[in-house]
Amino acid sequence: MKGQAEDDGEGEPRPDPPETTMLRASLVEGDEPCTASGEYIGAVSSYSEDDAAALAPNHPPLEPRLRYQDRGLIGRGGQGEVRRVYDSHIGRVLAMKILSFAKLGQPRAHARFWNEARITANLQHPAIVPVHDMGKLEDGRPFFTMAEVQGRTFTAHIRDLHDLTEPLEQRRALRRIVQSLARACEGLAYAHSRGVMHRDIKPHNLMVGRFGEVQVMDWGLASRVTRSDDDAPTSSSWMPPDSTDPDLIESLALPDTADSNSIAGTVTYMAPEQARGDRDAMGPWTDVYSLGAVLYQILTGHPPYDGHKAEAWVSLLHGPPPSLVDYAPSPLRPHGLLRHCEQAMAREPADRLRDASQLAQALQDYLDDVERHDRAQGIVALADAQWQGLPSGPDGPGASGLQVLREQAEALRDEAHRLLADLGPLDPPRLKKPAWALQDRAAQLDRQVAIATVEWQQTLRSALNEVPDLASAHDRLARYYFHRLKEAEEARHADDAARAEALLRAHDRGPYAAYLRGHGHLSLATEPVAEALLLKYEDRGRRLMPVPMTALGPTPLVDVDIPSGSYLLVLRAPGHHLVRYPVYLPRAGRWDGSDETGQPFVLRLPRLGELEDDDVFVPAGPFIVGGDPEAAESLPRDVRWLPSFVMKRYPVTCREYLAFLNDLVARGRAEEAASFAPRQPLGTTATSRTEPAWERGQDGRYELAGEHPRAPVTLIDWNGARAYAAWRAERSGRAWRLPTELEWEKAARGVDGRLCPWGDAFDPCCACVLVSPAVAFAPQPVDLQQRFRRDCSPYGVRGMAGNVRDWCGHGWTADGRPRSDESAPVEITVRGGCWTSPTTPGHVASRFAASPDFVFRSLGFRLVRDA
Fold it and tell me: What is the pTM of this model?
């Protein structure tokens, strides 16, 4: 550089001449396989003509014919030629670069030739072709020899890269060429440490050998830098030319490689300060820009600036190339490389990396990340094999994965359920053993799944140890914890749900954001229009209490956005009864009351007078049935839909049943009344119809024998309960009947799947059960001083978790749905808790079965009718 001394290659500094002319030529520009030496032509000289003339005599002609044997031409260009020679002293083939005859009369060309040879010879690095010898031929032409390396240029490799279409192949090829670029950066970093700039970095001057070795070629424009390491790159106030000036465009006769007193290099890859000829702003960072331009072409398939050399030069001076972020997403443009490319190609030198060593480190860090990513993806693939299982091969069946084991266990449970569906609870064990064996096998598979799940989770976590933000591992774990969260919430296991939610939040990268937000949408139409008040069920003293939230206005309600949870809508319309309408909104769910067919649903409100004082309206809609593992014989968890119905608030009482029997007697049906009368309980002569539990007076009418008139009637068999319902329907003109067990469960639990009528926590103070205080070991009057007032369902039905159980109107079925043929059921479904129950049967999902002629002191019944 001007005003500074430069090393001439032998350690003796020489003053920088007042004017320097640079010249560059190339022999080989093709993309087909070629030799390194075939592209290695050119020199840089910082010597004057006098210096060159003085230097030339110091190198007497050699006799290469005594040492080198010509093996043919490799390439030829304006500066000279490169020939393949055999070095008889060393015993190997080399490449010999020879100055052309046309340059023999140009001392400056001689000086540049020797300077190129000496600069290159002093750069001893694996990425720089070594120079072995230099001298003159008999005809006076100077030469130097170097290693011949077979390979292909980056230009060819970049073209091959962008011809690929399969993403995996693209990623692998990209990784290989970035590795090669990092090794080229290391070679340039060494040159920068020796005070040498290349100044003509481009894909055609970077070569990959047959064995993966990387060579930085063509140091013909290299120059020495004496700037200290503390010197920072500077900016210039130089303004670019007007790209619209036709005279300027016409006058720019720049070759692909420019050469003037101030500008040298290949336009499409040179840094802005190099294009301006601002030598004071140039330094190792100038080569860094060119390396970034090569990376730009790797990522896009074309140079940063296209078009005619003059147009490219003007575009370069006016601004940056098209931003990489504007390109379509592709495996060929990973985010990490885009960032490094943009930093390397920063317009201002001060914003770039200082030298090639920093870019080499940045690329190596990226490659390390890619290697870790590849290892992590391999671990994820192993986890997928653990989940899905290995395919069968010629040596036999593959290993069963988690999903396979889960499906096998579920199939076994389904088969067991099918077998048990044809049996009743009272059938002998020998008939149930095949189903039990299937259940036991399913339980064994569940244990295998539990152990394998832990191993699967650990495998994915080991992938995250490699790459903490690995999306594929997070996605799989998030999907797993999403299902665990749903299961825990459906089972109403608060601790498990909280744990699963925390883990889902830790692994979710967006797909479950709406679910975790926890909102849903409520829609409802009524006939007639009603004002809707929204109350939210909240746990108050281990009881779900409806707490007023807001007035929603008149129906219809359309997609009202509210947090997920359990709610109560209170609906008021003039001339109609007030309606309690429970609603359950799961996370990111929707409630519109529609049935399984998805047909639009309109809730008809009961008119005033349609309900008696002790009638409870249960509106139509979906509800959660079963799913309580602590309840006896609970149905599997499911969502069912039922039309509106009306249930009596209390079980049928002794007073009401007494009126039924005496009406039969009064109508001359005393024998029939005797068959339906309460009988002695189990433990005496339960099956005897000759020992009634109630006494009869002299007039033949029945009398209560110590029974409280408002106590639920018991000791009634199923036929007696059905007979009473028919009599009540005849007397009232309304079709009263015994409830189906699904109607009974919905009336008891509401729609949100709660375990007890009041919530999820059973307390013996809430219902009349065996261990409740102040229980006189007998059914309690249904409304005595509002005792056990918490045993009240969301609709207002009382006494369903305790006091007495209820006959249902149909025989036992595995799925809770009545059979089409109910003429002679063997076992009848019984629902509810009772005063002789321990606590868990108070869970209202419990189911029991009894023979139709069974009577018990804790078994009564209640009535329903269609709304």
Answer: 0.67
**Number of Cβ atoms within 10 Å of the Cβ of 705:** 12
Quickly state the pLDDT bin for 425 (edges 50, 70, 90): confident
Q: Tens digit of pLDDT for each residue in 263-290? A: 667 899 999 999 998 888 999 999 999 9
Whole-angstrom distance, CA of residue 571 vs CA of residue 455: 52
> Hey, what amino acid is at 396?
G
CA of 63: how far to CAs of 101, 124, 137, in Å?
18, 26, 7
CA distances from 575 to 116, 219, 528, 551, 568 (A): 105, 98, 10, 20, 21
What does the pLDDT read at residue 529? 97
In this predicted structure, the answer to whether residue 666 has a pLDDT above a threshold of 90 is: yes
Name every residue whose Cβ is closer than 8 Å to that of residue 693 and which is 6 or more positions away in sequence: 677, 678, 679, 680, 681, 705, 715
Q: What pairs with residue 208 in β-bridges?
A: 152, 214
Alpha helix positions (H), 10-99: 49-55, 64-67
Q: What's the burial of 506, exposed, middle or buried (CB within 10 Å: 0-12/13-18/19+)?
A: exposed
Identify whether the C-beta of residue 565 lies closer than 8 Å to the C-beta of residue 537: yes
How far apart are alpha carbons 751 and 728 in whole angstroms? 29
Strands 565-572 and 531-539: antiparallel
Q: 298-317, pLDDT tens digit by residue?
A: 999 999 998 788 888 888 99
Q: How confident is the model at residue 417 (pLDDT cuts 50, 70, 90)?
A: confident
End-to-end CA distance of the chain: 101
Instruction: Residue 205: count other Cβ atoms within 10 Å of its Cβ.
Output: 27
Q: Which two tokens stand for residue 828?
A: 């009848």
Bridge partners of residue 142, in order along the sequence: 136
Tokens for 841, please give them: 């049967």
Report in angstroms the alpha-carbon separations of 191 from 186, 200, 204, 209, 836.
9, 13, 19, 20, 94
Residue-wise pLDDT for 203-249, tens only, equals: 999 999 988 999 998 887 888 875 544 444 443 333 334 444 443 33
Q: Is the pLDDT of residue 194 over 70?
A: yes
> What is the overall mean pLDDT for the chain?
84
Angle formed at CA 847 by CA 707 and CA 866, multiple of 5 degrees: 75
Question: Which among 280, 299, 179, 274 is positioned nearest to 231, based on CA atoms?
Answer: 280
Pure H helices in 389-512: 402-421, 429-466, 471-490, 494-507
Q: CA of 428: how far to CAs of 231, 423, 431, 433, 440, in Å? A: 96, 9, 6, 9, 18
Residues 26-36, mean pLDDT to the nearest whole number: 33
Q: Which residue has the tokens 């820009």?
A: 289
Residues 814 and 420: beta-carbon distance below 8 Å: yes
The share of the chain scoring above pLDDT 90, in percent, equals 58
Task: Using pLDDT thresholds of 50, 70 and 90, give the confidence band for residue 31.
Answer: very low
Give the model's pLDDT for residue 39. 34
Torsion angle in degrees (nearest 10) through CA of 188, 190, 193, 198: -30
Whether residue 528 is preceded by a cis peptide bond, meaning omega within 30 degrees of 0, is: yes
pLDDT average, residue stretch 510-535: 94
Can you tell me the distance from the alpha carbon of 271 to that of 233, in angstroms, rounded to the nearest whole number? Answer: 12
DSSP of 178-237: HHHHHHHHHHHHHHHHTTEE-----GGGEEEETTS-EEE---TT-EE----TTPPP----
Q: What is the DSSP string of 529-594?
A: --EEEEEEEEESSSSEEEEEEEEEEESPEEEEEEESEEEEEEEE-TTB--EEEEEEE-TT-EE---
Does residue 502 sit in helix, strand or coil?
Answer: helix
Q: How confident is the model at residue 582 (pLDDT cuts 50, 70, 90)?
A: very high
**Angle subtended by helix axes 284-300 and 154-163, to nearest 10:** 30
Using DSSP's 3-state secondary structure scheme, residue 638 falls into strand
Nearest one of 222, 215, 225 to 194, comparing CA atoms: 225
Closest by CA position to 826, among listed 848, 851, 847: 851
